[in-house]
């Protein structure tokens, strides 16, 4: 008769043992809010914690991660988009509740929408053709994200039926949508690699975009770098004594940098045991101690090179080239088709896009260059704005974190690669020494 009570108490104990403990502190640091998370370790939990913070558009300025044994501890130094500490109690409360339940979060599918996944060879006007097909097929685009990298394009588009406002379920209609979009993606020279897929809506669009481009093997293609000085410096070396592989990354700092790196390591089935993240001015310095899920380090030169290529690609996919344009207007059928057709007719190429609707309002961001990837001419931009509507389409400056710090010295700009090889993780090693996990960090 007492078994049910005993089981209830046992379940409560297990819940308390596995529920992350979250502390948010505004007193310790004068320039950032500290978010501390202690939890039982499992694969992917670090990514989920970072995802909670970055989905709130918070910047992670510094971080320390440690997870030996069955427990992990994360400390994040975060600020809002203006670089200020967090003061909004609603935001703080949301962070506490979200991080405390990451063990138990379930898929929150976007009901009533059909998800379209597209990959293929990028070209000028491709997005215009995709949106034109969807408009002709009476598909209303509700949300979408588009990334381009190394001549490839990946897009995740959520649509609903224009007439009914509901999810598209007719199998013949879905097959027709897939076939027509596949023809658009193939163009004249991409017969084998163009892909379309109708799937259930995913919980995190940006992680899915990383997975799509990774599956498309964009990291193996010849890089298209208009600013080669911004190429990430990634080194991987083994620490044989502790069976760790040490990944060092030095690159231009930007929003969601940590998310992109951790997302890639997680999806490649590596486990982060220790890490330090530090940003200074416009530079990001990231160091990870990783192993395979079976506990072994990277064990071959081809694998080491693949990790370097994949991390460089993950960082560069979100790098926003071109002028950032914001379209804010009343939503209507064929809006995206008309806007992107205007871009194409004026020789503008969309390198990245974020599409969203709220009620009857569409708010879309486009990053555009000229046809060969160079900066778009200001007269062309103003001409396009005049055709679409000066008040509807506005030029938005990139956040400061994307801009090059022209005042830094030459040593600061080029000295990062050597520092990577010499440091061998001095800060993390010091932390491991303090934890009693190694005898010396000298």
Describe the structure.
It contains 13 helices and 16 strands. The protein has helices at residues 3-18, 45-54, 89-100, 126-136, 171-186, 205-215, 257-267, 301-317, 335-345, 378-388, 410-414, 416-423, 426-434, and strands at 21-25, 33-40, 59-66, 71-79, 114-121, 139-149, 152-161, 195-199, 233-239, 244-252, 270-280, 283-292, 323-330, 349-358, 361-369, 393-396. The longest helix is centred in the C-terminal third of the chain and has 17 residues, at 301-317. The protein has an eight-stranded antiparallel sheet. It folds into two domains: 20-105 and 227-254 and 272-300, no CATH class; 115-221 and 320-396, 2-Layer Sandwich (Alpha-Beta Plaits), CATH 3.30.70.260. α2 (45-54) runs antiparallel to α7 and α7 (257-267) packs antiparallel against α8 (301-317). The protein is of the alpha+beta class. Keywords: Repeat. It holds the Pfam family ACT. One of its GO terms (molecular function) is amino acid binding. InterPro entries: ACR1-12 (IPR040217), ACT-like_dom_sf (IPR045865), ACT_dom (IPR002912). Residues 34-109, 115-192, 324-403 form the ACT domain.
């Amino acid at each position: 008769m007492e078994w049910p009570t005993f089981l209830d108490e046992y379940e409560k104990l297990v819940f308390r043992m596995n529920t992350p403990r979250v502390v948010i502190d505004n007193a310790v640091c004068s320039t950032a809010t500290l978010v501390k998370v202690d939890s039982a370790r499992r694969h992917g939990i670090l990514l989920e914690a970072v995802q909670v913070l970055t989905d709130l558009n918070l910047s992670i300025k510094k971080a320390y991660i440690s997870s030996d044994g069955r427990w992990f501890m994360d400390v994040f130094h975060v600020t809002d988009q203006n670089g200020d500490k967090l003061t909004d109690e609603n935001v703080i409360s949301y962070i506490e509740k979200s991080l405390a339940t990451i063990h138990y979060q379930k898929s929150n599918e976007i009901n009533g929408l059909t998800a379209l996944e597209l990959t293929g060879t990028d070209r000028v006007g491709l997005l215009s053709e995709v949106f034109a097909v969807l408009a002709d097929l009476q598909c209303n685009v509700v949300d979408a994200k588009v990334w381009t990298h190394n001549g490839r394009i990946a897009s995740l588009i959520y649509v609903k039926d224009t007439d009914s406002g509901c999810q598209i379920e007719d199998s013949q209609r879905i097959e027709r949508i897939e076939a027509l979009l596949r023809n658009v993606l193939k163009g004249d020279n991409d017969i084998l690699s163009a892909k379309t897929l109708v799937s259930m809506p995913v919980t995190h669009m940006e992680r899915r975009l990383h997975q799509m481009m990774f599956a498309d093997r964009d990291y193996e293609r010849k890089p298209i770098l208009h600013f080669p000085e911004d190429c990430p410096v990634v080194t991987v070396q083994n620490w044989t004594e502790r069976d760790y592989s040490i990944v060092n990354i030095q690159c231009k700092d930007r929003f969601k940098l940590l998310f992109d790196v951790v997302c890639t390591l997680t999806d490649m089935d590596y486990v982060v045991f220790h890490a330090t993240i530090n940003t200074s001015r416009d530079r990001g310095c990231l160091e990870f101690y990783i192993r395979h899920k079976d506990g072994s380090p990277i064990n071959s030169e081809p694998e080491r090179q693949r990790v370097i290529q994949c991390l460089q690609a993950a960082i560069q996919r979100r790098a926003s080239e071109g002028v950032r344009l914001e379209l804010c207007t009343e939503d209507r059928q064929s809006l995206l088709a008309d806007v992107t057709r205007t871009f194409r007719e004026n020789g503008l190429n969309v390198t990245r896009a974020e599409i969203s609707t709220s009620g009857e309002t569409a708010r879309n961001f486009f990053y555009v260059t000229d046809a060969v990837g160079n900066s778009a001419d200001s007269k062309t931009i103003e001409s396009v704005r005049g055709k679409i509507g000066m008040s509807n389409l506005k030029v938005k400056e990139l956040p400061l974190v994307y801009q090059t710090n022209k005042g830094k010295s030459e040593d600061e700009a080029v000295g990062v690669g050597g520092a990577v090889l010499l440091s061998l993780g001095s800060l993390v090693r010091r932390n491991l020494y303090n934890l009693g996990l190694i005898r010396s960090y000298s």
